[in-house]
Design goal:
Elements lengths: L2 H21 L1 H7 L4 E8 L6 E7 L6 E5 L4 E5 L4 H5 L6 E2 L3 E5 L6 E6 L6 H10 L2 E12 L13 E6 L9 E4 L13 E5 L6 E2 L3 E7 L3 E9 L5
Parallel strand pairs: 2-5
Antiparallel strand pairs: 1-7, 1-14, 2-13, 3-4, 6-7, 8-11, 8-12, 8-14, 9-10, 9-13
């Protein structure tokens, strides 16, 4: 490409940006870009389905573990005792790292992670103080044994409630299988779309997702742009 052609291309790009700005198209382009939270949950059990509390409705889930070998105390965010005491079933609280569920020979690992350079807890703390409306939830399921798509994972439910200390709201059950179509192109994925305001992640939200045995879920949550 000659220098003249390069200059003409740069000028064309600049004119297009200015045109979009003054016509309002730039705002439309920016508003179409949503913030996104992604995390993965791997249920290491071959016999037990688990319920993972993604959002905990401002109920205290912090706990401490003592490492006798290192002589140190580790603070974590996967203590489900408060949720159980409030009457909301949760085997695991969404957290960074690996959580052991069960005891002795019946125990198994639940592994949770997000993108490199990010943490689940940072995102959860942000959303508790900066409520955002959920635009779309995409859940992809694979089998732990061979990594193949696992449509059977959607024979499970999500549970939603708004929690406050003065009255107990029954969790609303959402059957995930209703979002799965047998003739869809990708058999290991469901997509749930929400209108603005239908589902808001805030400090009152309780949200749990069931994870089938020997299954890994990759969950992507897209948010509407924040209010001005």
């Amino acid at each position: 490409m000659s220098e003249l052609e390069k200059k003409q291309r740069l000028l064309s790009q600049a004119n297009r940006v200015l045109t979009n700005y003054f016509s309002g198209e730039m705002n439309k382009l920016q508003s179409s870009i949503t913030d996104r939270m992604q995390f993965t949950i791997e249920n290491g059990s071959t016999s037990e389905k688990i319920a993972v509390a993604v959002a905990t409705g401002n109920i205290d889930t912090e706990g401490f573990e003592f490492d006798a070998t290192e002589g140190s105390v580790t603070k974590h965010n996967h203590n489900n005792a408060g949720l159980l005491a409030a009457g909301y079933a949760a085997d695991v609280v969404l957290d960074d790292g690996v959580v052991t569920v069960g005891e002795d020979h019946n125990s198994f690992a639940v592994t949770m992670s997000t993108a490199a350079g990010k943490t689940i807890n940072h995102c959860k703390r942000y959303l508790e103080h900066n409520p955002r409306c959920v635009k779309r939830v995409t859940i992809a399921a694979t089998s732990n044994s061979d990594g193949r798509e696992n449509p059977a994972a959607f024979n499970a439910s999500m549970f939603l409630a708004s929690l406050n200390p003065f009255q107990k709201e029954a969790a609303r059950e959402v059957d995930m299988s209703q979002y799965f179509q047998t003739n869809q192109f990708q058999s290991g994925k469901i997509v749930i779309d929400y209108n603005y305001g239908d589902l808001q992640w805030n400090d009152l939200l309780y949200w749990a997702i069931e994870v089938e045995t020997s299954t890994t879920l990759k969950v992507t949550i897209d948010f509407y742009p924040p209010e001005d």
